[in-house]
Amino acid sequence: MITERDYYNMLNTAKADGLAEGEAKGEAKGREEGRVEGREEGLAMAAKELKKLGLPTDIIIKSTGLSEAQIAKL
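Below the sequence we write its predicted structure tokens.
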């Protein structure tokens, strides 16, 4: 027979487990988003330097994978 206290403890444990799982998923998603942003920033910086060196846009596109519009904004 489950007492009120047992029921309360089960609910609190389930809640804590759910929160921990949610936080872990959120952290992983946040790290992945950070990696993507960092990669994009790095490519933009490289393209900007290549542009300063006077390299043709088509070579910068091949080197960085950025679009012509993205490079034009730099």
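The chain has a mean pLDDT of 88.
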